[in-house]
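Backbone-to-sequence.
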């Protein structure tokens, strides 16, 4: 299954070390996700599913944060690549 997702370019994000290498190290990949996969897309690319909680960063790691959050994931990605 994962090899099929990779072949179709559907692996969108992975847990990576500081060199950009996907990692199974629990300090980097806290869920133990196979092949360090964190997010995938649908075959058409319109649906993005992710495992990690982007609101859980820094001192908020492993804490549930209630309420609505502004998380500009897509606009940040566009800025990064453009």
């Amino acid at each position: 299954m994962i090899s099929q997702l990779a072949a179709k370019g559907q692996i969108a994000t992975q847990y990576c070390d500081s060199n950009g290498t996907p990692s199974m190290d629990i300090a980097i990949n806290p869920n133990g996700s196979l092949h360090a996969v964190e997010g995938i897309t649908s075959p058409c690319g319109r649906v993005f599913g992710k495992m990690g909680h982007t609101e859980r960063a820094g001192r908020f790691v492993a804490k549930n944060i209630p309420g609505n959050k502004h998380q500009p994931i897509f606009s940040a990605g566009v800025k990064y690549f453009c």
